[in-house]
Amino acid sequence: MYVMVETIHIDNIPSHINHFMKRRSARERKLKALIKSIVGLLFVSVLTIPTQAQDVSKKGVLDRDLALMMTWFEGEFDNNEQVYFEGTLKVGDEEKHERIHSIFKRAELPEIGKNIFYVQQYSDGDPNKVYRQRLYKFTPNYERGVVALEILSYKDAASVRDAHLDMTKLNGLTVADLDTMPEGCTVFWERRANQFVGFMDDGACQIKSKRSGKMLTFDDDLLLTDDQIWIQDRAEDADGNYVYGNKASVAHKLLKQNTFTCWVYAVDEKAKDGGHFNAGVKISDQGGEHWIDLTGENGKNVGIKMRNVHWPYGRNRNSLVLYAYKDGGDSAVSYVWAEPEAKRIALNLRWMQASCTRN
To answer: Given this model, what pLDDT does residue 298 score?
Structure first.
């Protein structure tokens, strides 16, 4: 038996059914178009999410590194230990380092930038021998993934001398009061493990010498940890001749200074109360010292000195040491030692007593 099937054309469908099917087809086309659009958007989002997340991650890491670096950088640093041991190791004159002291004090100068430091450096352990005053500006360079240090100098350095002792000297300081080093002299800091390494782009920092009129090329390699900063700055002329810097290419190795408050008593049989008592004495653990004049002639009769000894050789452990001196001698007559992180250290030699507490 055969069944005849007639092909039905939409034109032969009654009008109300025909209209319904046309509306349904239009809705289906719109729905398909909407789905296609949503899928496309989701596809683009999937592609961009990793990139955005990567950018956020890099920014977050650098911001965190910058915050840590700012806490490590602030303070006072001195290479007293390096200078002392170079003497005992009989290092050659050309390889020896002069003693330098670096002060890095955080400054609130929003018109200039966020992470600003007042910088003052002096030599020979003498605060009067200031050889450099600067303003340091740190900013994150997200493109290179490093912290950029811009070095600024004062047009009137005398007006801000010793600003670390009186930060109001920096009040009102603006960009117009500063000179900027050439762009190529920017120092870049990169975190490597638990330290920050500072460097300049090779051959980029060139400045014309005011003294000789020649173009000089400056370079700087630095290392910063939680308790040290190493500085190896150097310069040469266009012919590659030495201008300054350690000739053995060894950095100045500065330790972060800790300050102690001490009291010192020295026996004096001539005194009515039997001796001299000095309280509130501030000394540092980087060669800080204090003397008591028993003669009234500005003499160094009895004194103390403090070092945080970092041995560069042998198996001796680093120690916080308090020395006792008598009759202005260069050699200590006695000393005591403790762990480098000790909060208090004291001695009693009968003729002199001293006690120092970490600030």
So the answer is: 80
